[in-house]
Amino acid sequence: MPERSIRNIVSQKEICPGHYQMVIDAPEIAAEAEMGQFLHLKWAAETNSDPLLRRPISFNEIDREHGQLIIVYRVIGRGTKLLSTLEAGDKIDLMGPLGTGFSIPEEKNNFLVVGGGMGIAPLLDLVENLLVADKEVTVLLGAEKKEQLLNLEQYQELNVNLKTATMDGSSGYQGFVTDLLADLTAIEYVYTCGPEVMMATVQEWAQENEIAGQASLEERMGCGTGACLSCVCKIKVETESGWEYQKTCTTGPIFALNEVIFDE
Amino acid sequence: MSNVNLKVDLNGLQLANPVTTASGTFGFGEEYKDYVDLNKLGAVMVKGTTLNPKQGNATPRIAETSSGMLNAIGLQNPGVDYFLKNILPETKQYDFKTIVNISGNTVEDYAKLASKLDESGVAALEINISCPNVKKGGLAFGTQPAMAAGVVEAVRQETDLPLITKLSPNVADITAIAEAVEDAGTDVISLINTLLGMKIDIQQQEPVLANKMGGLSGPAIKPVAVRMVYQVAQAVDVPLIGMGGISNAEDAVEFLLAGADAISIGTANFVNPEVSMEILAGIEDYLVENGYDSVEEIVGKAIK
Ligand SMILES: Cc1cc2nc3c(=O)[nH]c(=O)nc-3n(C[C@H](O)[C@H](O)[C@H](O)COP(=O)(O)OP(=O)(O)OC[C@H]3O[C@@H](n4cnc5c(N)ncnc54)[C@H](O)[C@@H]3O)c2cc1C
Ligand SMILES: Cc1cc2nc3c(=O)[nH]c(=O)nc-3n(C[C@H](O)[C@H](O)[C@H](O)COP(=O)(O)O)c2cc1C
Ligand code: FES
Question: What does this protein do (chain B) (predicted)?
């Protein structure tokens, strides 16, 4: 069951310009959390009304052994800027674990994980879990430049088939990470998280190759509990219109890849 | 536990305490079961319900603003029939009173909703008159006394359930609307709904919300809401449920002192999902510390 609680920050560091890794002490949440789920958080324990709303951030890693949660985020605006000023020993206000997690289909063996930009962050835990389940894993990571390939060193230590793509050519292929899809064979299942255009391209490729998968979506959130209907995304259903709005915070953020409608 | 009497009687609608949750911010109640002892809430105003299911607006549906937020959800809801069949039976396992917030685009919509809900076992209806009247070019029902009264009269004819009419703040004189709905037979008035607002993304040079405009809520609107409660409390005799930016017990007490008999918590639930229980406890503390025996005693005390 999700809970709201005020927790201690164990550490926070800038892992590359504008990108932070925060470690939070929260054994009860760590014990329950699943890969792909997220926290809805606020930077201070006292009630402060500006900025008002919580911010959703995915788990990067769930360290059950030490009872710690690791998140990785990029500074975008006021909320994440404030988050980045917190230090070890400061308090943070959490709701979580929220949403649905990734699931691993047992019968499949050959998996692909495609992450782009900040979308790389929620995938590390998934990849580690795939390896624990004895699966073959190909990982494609894309970003503007090498330093933004989050967790790159950790991925390099894992027993996965890793390929990178950067727009400036500073690591791996120069260009879109989705350009790397063409060379892949024997993939049975795909996971993706990142910019919508990237996920839409992965979806197209998966459909052409009749591969099922899961995508992690982002929408602006109010409540995080399923009450306010701010966070909806378009999901295919068998109704007249062929789709309906579903809540990213409770029905998602993980959805079946082929059911998501990426607009534009 | 103190001996303070927290019960409130809203013209026959009995609540265990003055703390309710505002429509559209608390789902159907169950969404908050992991954070709140739902049995301790006075009432839950459920999401705006319409005759037919509604998909709602495109996203983005919300935008954060200084100490507040804009929303343009577009009344996404499963429709009244689905509510009656699938949701109401679930909410009945809790002690809170279920109040259904009804929305329509014609007077007939409201009347039909009232007749469908009449014997369903809900505690009351809250009439959301901030909706556009399609027969009047989309002008909101709540902006003209006669149009607002017309909705209340039509609903009154269909049901004996306690009627709460929820006022829009987007009017020149809120007391005129309040008097009109009182004359039309409302039992209670709730106020305020959101203030119409807008936010523009200066990088994209376009409105942030897909719907362009949206309703402003949260701490930013509290002074406006307190003022309106204070004015309406003096203009009508029916009890009031005050809301608009209530984030803590002090805010809630402010509304009671301004003349609200009960209060409703909206946006603050998003910020702190446990806030309703903290506010309930805080109101009780305030009463004890100041030597009162009941909530009733402080209602309207600031009216001078
Ligand atoms: C389920 C989920 C998981 C996420 N996981 C991560 C993560 O692991 N790491 C990471 O860096 N970011 C993640 N994000 C995005 C992150 O929530 C936003 O970057 C953050 O809210 C921006 O806040 P801000 O105040 O800095 O930006 P501002 O632009 O000032 O924020 C204004 C408002 O818009 C909302 N907002 C802005 N961008 C986004 C966005 N992309 N998604 C949702 N809401 C947004 C904010 O929450 C706030 O309400 C995730 C989003 C979701 C929905
Ligand atoms: C996301 C959201 C959805 C809302 N939906 C409704 C609704 O369906 N019907 C209604 O009468 N009011 C609706 N409201 C208005 C609230 O019930 C309340 O009147 C308003 O937000 C002011 O209170 P607050 O500042 O405490 O949120 C909504 C408000 C928000 C923030
Ligand atoms: S954030 Fe409120 S329903 Fe998802």
Answer: Catalyzes the conversion of dihydroorotate to orotate with NAD(+) as electron acceptor.
